[in-house]
Amino acid sequence: MLSVADTYRTTQVATTSPAGQVVLLYEGAIRHAARHLAALERADIDAAHHASLRAQAIVTALREVLDLSTGPIAEQLDLLYDFILDRLVDGNVRKTPKPTEEAIGLLRELLEAWRTIAGLPTPSLAAVPPAPTSSPSMSTSSRAPGALAIAGIQR
Question: Which domain holds residue 113?
Answer without folding.
Answer: 17-150
